[in-house]
Amino acid sequence: MESGQLQLCGWCKVGKGPEGFSPSYWGKRGTWCRACHAAKARDEMPPRGQHEPRNCEQCGKRYVPRQLKSDAAFCSFVCGDRFRKESGQTRDRHLRRKYGITARDYDRLLAEQGGGCALCGVKPEELTAGRYRTYLHVDHDHETNDVRGLLCPEHNLLLGRFGDSVEMFRKVVEYLEAHASI
């Protein structure tokens, strides 16, 4: 920042010159002005910038935001978390981080499988329990992290129990065929 520019105080939101700010612990200019730092030391903090009452986008409750942020659209962390879960934002981040696919990729894969589990065909709607939608599990190779398909919880656990061992599945098939007449 040039010496002639005004800096906005992080607390009172008033623009002041460089002389209005104390240096921080690391020697850089602080984010709160000298007056706000002094008031904090005296436990007499001035009110934060002007806040207009808003309606929470999740529950509709009227509230006054604590921060002057344009994205402070929820009255609490609970409402924000509920919105992200219901809108799918949390799920999309999870799919990207863990499997490297997007929610769109998931939906495309589900459509390619006929809308259900790759093994038994059970649909996600049949798994729905409670308030939130239940999804099919993303089956992936643990060595390469390549996505193989979408499975219902039972079949995903089955593969996991056998450690993705083709040889073990062959033994199970042989066992079942040998005892089929019983």
Describe, in plain words, how this protein is organized in 3D.
- With 182 residues, this protein is an alpha+beta fold.
- Among the domains are: 7-41, no CATH class; 114-178, His-Me finger endonucleases (His-Me finger endonuclease fold), CATH 3.40.1800.
- 36% of the residues lie in helices and 14% in strands.
- The chain is built from seven helices and eight strands; from the N terminus they run E-E-E-E-H-E-E-H-H-H-H-E-E-H-H.
- Strands 1-2 form a two-stranded antiparallel ribbon. The protein has a two-stranded antiparallel ribbon with strand order 3-4. Strands 5-6 form a two-stranded antiparallel ribbon.
- A hairpin with a 6-residue loop joins strand 7 (137-140) and strand 8.
Note the beta-strand portion: 5-15%
CATH T-level topology of the domain at 114-178: His-Me finger endonuclease fold
CATH second-level architecture of the domain at 114-178:
3-Layer(aba) Sandwich
Query: So what's the CATH class of the domain at 114-178?
Result: Alpha Beta
Major sheet characteristics: 2 strands, antiparallel
Query: What coarse outline follows from CA principal-axis ratios?
Result: elongated
Head-to-tail CA distance between termini: 83 Å
Order of helices and strands: EEEEHEEHHHHEEHH
Radius of gyration, in angstroms, nearest whole number: 28 Å
Question: Which whole number gives the mean pLDDT?
Answer: 81
Number of helices: 7
* Assigned CATH superfamily of the domain at 114-178: His-Me finger endonucleases
- Number of strand segments: 8
Which class best fits the helix and strand makeup? alpha+beta
Strand order, sheet with most strands: 1-2
Q: Indicate the low-confidence ranges by residue numbers.
A: none
